[in-house]
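Exam prep: given the inputs below (a chain plus 3-iodo-tyrosine), describe the expected output before reading on.
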Amino acid sequence: MDAYELITRNATEVVTDEEVRALADDPEGKRVYVGYEPSGVLHIGHMLTATKLIDLQEAGFEVVVLLADVHAYLNDKGTFAEIRETAERMRDQFLAYGLDADATEFVYGSEFQLDEEYVLDTHELEVSTTLNRAQRAMAEIQGGDTAKVSHLVYPLMQALDIVYLDLDLAVGGLDQRKVHMLHREQIPAMDGESDHAYEARPCLHTPILADLDTGVGKMSSSSGTTISMEDSEADIAEKINGAFCPPTRDPESDDEGNERENPVLEIFEYSVFPRFDAVVVERPEEYGGDLEYDDYESLAADLESGELHPADAKGALADYLNELIAPGREVLRELDA
Ligand code: IYR
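Solution:
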């Protein structure tokens, strides 16, 4: 796979394609990042963007993981001391998941976001951004029902992070899109206090997984079922077994199954196939024997045609996910020992 394919596979969108093509031409020394509000334990949403970071490392980029402690504080995720403690638990889990330790830089937001220049730049953005715009940028990120002043400062700081970390590409789930658009519009108009370049950077957005149990709406770490590094092999099997994964879908029918997403297929596509050369679905001889898939499309086609039964697909998915999660589970066990 060439660099452009590695960058864009499974990406919902890149902004702009032209800028990303230029990056793909020369990844050497270029910096890409994802920022995470520290939560202590990685869940499958973190793993999806981490898979993209692994793609980018394979393409030759330097990866920065921002442990966004100040942002988590602004989003009411606990006291600052609590957040710092949970952040420390995340680094080793990312490495256990497969990020290359030699090509990954972990940065805490508080290492630079409390510096005078950064704070003054935040204030400059506060002056130039309307309340309405900042609030809209936060719609899909904000925790809690009522917007606080902190929720308006949050996206402005995130827009600035891309400048202060000298990044060449900002990566995030599709829920980060409006913050990235704010970055692209507001940053080039800044006077700016620092020596960093106040230029808009390209952005890449990964899909958001559908709700595991229903396929309706988005999977969330705060409600519904999610899969995390803490899950045992049995937990994973049970959760995947209960996931929404309809058998064959008749494209002519308008039954509600056609309007739902299939989270089992999504996890195969975004988290499993990028990490394995092939997926083997084990079946007893009497049911046709093992099936082997070199790519996501052939597995999805077999599920659609009925050749692959949902129960067999789920069994295989649980096994592959467990293989991806097992090293992180071990890290958590050691941290808690
Ligand atoms: N908004 C992210 C956290 C975050 C991401 C980046 I990229 C930053 O520069 C700062 C914060 C979230 O929703 O988790």
